[in-house]
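TEACHING EXERCISE
Course module: macromolecular assemblies
Task: Read the component lines below, then compare them to the predicted structure of the full complex.
Student: A.B.
Group: 4
Components provided:
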Amino acid sequence: MNFSLLDLEPFFLSFKLAGITTLILFIVAMPISWWLSQTRCKCKPFIEAVTSLPIVLPPSVLGFYILYSLSYNSPIGAFFEETFGIKLVFNFTGLVIASCFYSFPFMVQPLQGGFESLNKNMLEASYIAGKSWFQTLIYIALPNIKPAVLTGLVVTFAHTVGEFGVVLMVGGSIPGETKVASVAIYEFVEVMDYSQAHIYSAIMLIMSFVVLLGVSVFNRRHNKRIGVR
Amino acid sequence: MITIKICKPLQGSQGEMDLDIDIHIEKHAFVALSGKSGSGKTTLLRVLAGLESAEGNIKVNDLVWQDETKTLATQKRGIGFVFQDYALFANMSVEHNLLYVCKDKALAKHLLEMTELYGLKDRLVQGLSGGQKQRVSLCRAMMNRPQLLLMDEPLSALEPTMRSKLQHDILALHKEFGTTTIMVSHDPSEIYRLAQRVIVLDQGKVVEDSCTKEVLLKTQGSQKFSLRGELLDIIQADVIHIAVIAIGQQIVEVVLDEEEAKSYHVGESVQVSTKAFSPSLSKV
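Instructor-supplied answer key:
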């Protein structure tokens, strides 16, 4: 096994994709999950069902629809390419968009659960103190749901690193552009290069375990600090 | 002067009812709001705070908080609210809970010193006792120098000694700031000590509205004293019956004849009074 010949680019690509997706989703999902946690609107079950769809939908189905909606033949794809000169499929941009759809519920659900667990009177005390919903969200709600925030960030990151079906459909396997670690493993197995597949898989396995262990340790410490066993 | 004329359908303990309130409260007054559980006391406070909607008008010192055309947002009402469960900001220290409301360090220091909490100002609120938490909550409510202070059973979760200390703090703050205050309470001694006026709600309606003494003092005519209690048991002893009655934290026994014993039922609310003897007082 020659480690010096190991091509680390798919890993960098995977982490770059996961990092950007996590950042975008944190910003986008935060107000949506806050709204879902606070609203009494009758359309809430409908919105929750839509946001949860990527959990149950086969990645190939999601990938197909994203491909269909963003390709040059679609109005959205044509608009972006003609107006901004940006292609939305078979490149890194397409991967980021697809990942945001694919991992959306993994950010929304922990945050929504965290917000819903907050003492309602505490939030109302903030409104009574003259603070807006946004100030309440930033200064009161988010600091009091740190474990949920960390879970959302880590699970979204890990889920994006591990995605395969959607990535393959929307991005293909262009080295340095869309060939992420999970696709690289698939290709090693396809050409029966099991030693490379083993190394890549072991790296993914160890990293996933370390990340989840870190989350567990953090949550334990946080709960100890606020007096929850 | 605060004018409240509101109406709101409620799901009470005995089915659907209307919260129908039409009261005026003088500036600087301390009003206690009493009544059975589910009579609409908390809802009234929440409507005043703008946390729940209701039909009608609310006017506070010539400023319209609510009428047919507009409702002033909670954030703009400038009120203080003390919750039964404290509702402190768990991620902040004692001092930051106060400074979050208003960045007035001098006022925060003054309030914390008044309530003997200044030494704990850097502590996270989770580590505090119930009494300390409620004192922080009280100080926090005073930070924006509210024109109306609302308190929803602020002391009901505390033990008697701490209650007494908190009552003293509430009274001291009321004297200093002159804030018009509405407090939900079930404790007669607490109401007597703090409030000048009691409003009793039942099924969403005002059933009594008078000065504290008139509402709380239950003696009538030549009665020397009169206490309200709950009949716990009727025990037969030879030819007489003994009624066991709980009055506050005390249990007393009253002798009944057979006819009387038959007319009372365990669990009933009863009044224990005497006319012939003057009650005597001694220190314990």
